[in-house]
Specification:
Elements (H helix, E strand, L loop, with lengths): L2 H13 L2 H23 L6 H10 L1 H11 L5 H24 L28 H28 L2
Helix pairs in contact: 2-4, 2-6, 3-5, 4-5, 5-6
Length: 155
């Protein structure tokens, strides 16, 4: 066995979860940011925001449990939530940009889904932040799967 292979096999347990730790941190900050917008800034969520929160809020807990148990199936049960959240946030962004007509909006009462409650730097909206967060979470989960596969090659 080469020296490089020995080094890789020794660090495998920790190395395969580096992306999972980063993804957990990202999901936690995204969740706290969502709570901040709702509770501190008093911005009421629209219907699509609620759907995105349904997908986002369980992720830090699922990731933490998966990391603590060194569960090899971590990505299998986190990825569906991230993919659904990415789909909803993509739809929400297209609705806010006017690509999708407002008549196809699920928001019937309260805050309209097409309304921009904030626009930091002129373009950074809440749905765009959600889209970015779900995209990065998916990249982290894919990285985690790749790290696991790479670690299996060394065994």
């Amino acid at each position: 066995m080469s020296r490089r292979a020995k080094r890789a096999s020794k660090s495998d347990p920790e190395r395969t979860f580096v992306c999972a730790y980063a993804t957990f941190t990202l999901a936690l900050f995204a969740t706290l940011g969502s709570v901040f917008f709702g509770e501190v800034m008093k911005l009421p969520p629209c219907t699509l925001c609620w759907y995105q929160r349904i997908c986002l809020f369980p992720l830090p807990l699922l990731l933490a449990v998966g990391i603590a148990q060194r569960d090899a199936r971590l990505a299998a049960y986190c990825m569906p939530l991230a993919l659904i959240g990415l789909g909803v946030s993509s739809y929400h962004n297209l609705l806010q940009l006017g690509v999708i007509p407002e008549t196809l909006s699920p928001c019937t009462g309260g805050v309209p889904c097409s309304e921009r409650q904030i626009a930091w730097l002129g373009f950074l909206t809440i749905p765009l932040m959600a889209l970015s967060a779900f995209s990065m979470i998916l990249v982290g989960l894919i990285g985690h799967v790749r790290e696991q596969r790479r670690g299996e090659r060394w065994r």
